[in-house]
Amino acid sequence: MAYENIRLEKDGAVATLYVDRPKALNALNTKTLQEMEAALHTIGTDVRVLIVTGGGEKAFVAGADIAEMAALPEAQAQEFGALGHRVFAMLEALPVPTIAAVNGFALGGGCELALACDFIYASEKAKLGLPEVGLGVIPGFGGTQRLTRAVGRARAKELVFTGERIDAAKAKEIGLVLEVLPADALMAHCRAVAEKLMKNSPLAIAKAKRVIEAGADLELKVANELERKTFGELFGSEDQREGMKAFLEKRTASFTGK
Ligand code: CAA
Q: Is the domain covering 6-197 a CATH 1.10.10.60 domain?
């Protein structure tokens, strides 16, 4: 399918979604979000890992599109916010691991996009932040909630209330970014991580992801119950039989995801 503002490329079982509107530093307008939604719908069982990054040299995503938002009446702003939430929730709910390769500015909606991925790796030139209060609004695509869960309330409030941009090293220090790489090594690092993930059972990873995500919003006792149940259920899978058999036979497992 041909898109205008994004690209979805597949290299074997690794898909890479580029938000690709460099003239506006990949800012998320309605069309871009709709294209992302359409692209996410095409992610099937042939994809084992999704990498999300920015097209061009300068930005991951510089936020929601301020030019489009500036004149929005309240009702349309509600719809725009709902669209962003829907797309990011869809990304977050994918059963495969998702990696944000933050190759430049990740501000506002861009930082929120990265936060909806499982891992965030950043280039040394990345700058991250949530500058919305300087525009008279608040983060609107999940930032107040996902950032708080990622770095804790005080750090989240500091970033949201000041609106300041932080560099990749600081973002790593506060636990927002997992690793910082030289710009020209970022994508290779993300692909190497993807290769590692693809050695493991896709079914077990999908279940682990779901239990971690769902469990984070539950009381510990209830969350542990979800883990217990899911652990047991996996013994009805081909991947469990293959994984344990391969270990005992001292060979590499060959998983089917079933
Ligand atoms: N929306 C629309 N256009 C944007 C944009 C955005 N978020 N960010 C950058 N652009 C456009 C600029 O307007 C400019 O366009 P023109 O060439 O037509 O003038 C082009 O991209 C290049 O940007 P700059 O000239 O500003 O580049 P710079 O290197 O001087 O600065 C920057 C880079 C610091 C990222 C700066 O562009 C900037 O501050 N951008 C806005 C960041 C921001 O506030 N993001 C949050 C948006 S609100 C939000 O995201 C709400 C939400 O949670 C849903």
A: no
